[in-house]
Write a structure and sequence with these properties.
Elements lengths: L1 E6 L3 H11 L12 E6 L2 H10 L4 E5 L1 E2 L2 E2 L1 H10 L5 E5 L4 H10 L3 E4 L5 H42 L5 H5 L5 H4 L1 H24 L5 H14 L4 H15 L4 H29 L10
Helix pairs in contact: 1-5, 2-3, 5-10, 8-9, 8-10, 8-11, 9-11, 10-11
Length: about 280
Amino acid sequence: MFHILVIEDNPADQKIIEKYLYNKQTVYPFDQDFKLHKAELAREALEMFVEGKFDLVLLDLSLPDIHGVDTFDKIYECMQSIPIIVLSGLENQETAVECLKRGAQDYLLKNTINSQALIRSILYASQRAAMQRQKDQARELQLKEKSFVRLRHLSEEKDVSVTAKAYGMPELHHSAPQEWEALIDRYADVLDLAIEIRAYKVEADLSESLTDLAEQIGFLKGTPRDVIRIHTAAIKRKQSFNEIKNNVYMEEGKYCLIQLLGQLVLFYRTNSLGTSNGHFA
């Protein structure tokens, strides 16, 4: 089922759109049926977007609660991942063209629209959006792979930092091998928690878990490089044949790593351990 959100306050225009989409004489180039969802206000559309999943948006620029380019900007801000086709009158044609520059996939003039034109626009818009998503995903995956490789290379460097040498802080996987494995397991659990919070809206304090982990690393006199090694090892353990799941771990891991490094620095500042002028070398 292909779900279309029609944001249009004029009942007559809503009926015309519905008539064109369900015209039995039109040859549909889709392998699935349409299902229309209607909203008369931008506010109502945004509420529906939060609650449901849509494949495409048909947007009238003149709504009771917002008008013109502001209408598109408001909707596009929350629905950038969904192709948007602007519906416009002759008097708003310049505005519709401006919406194209801002990210709309297409625009249609209401007084010239017909069933074939509407179906064709929906098909092309959905195909262009799908191709763009594939490009974005490929680019994002490439960036994540490069980031992972950089972290791995950094974690595998043999030289210990100047700060670690100065304060007698050897690498944790050498000085505390048992604790090292436990730290990796605990960080892996934090990654799982981060994903549960994101995907299932689980109520949990991720910051508290990262703070506790940073304190444990700090008490063992771990360094930022140790944190990076822990992160890299945990991510590696979580890798599987599920590419989507791998990407989620990489994405959430990036934020967890940043927070954990920050909490470790805060720990050393607070306890005045293993720092040199407030900075790690």
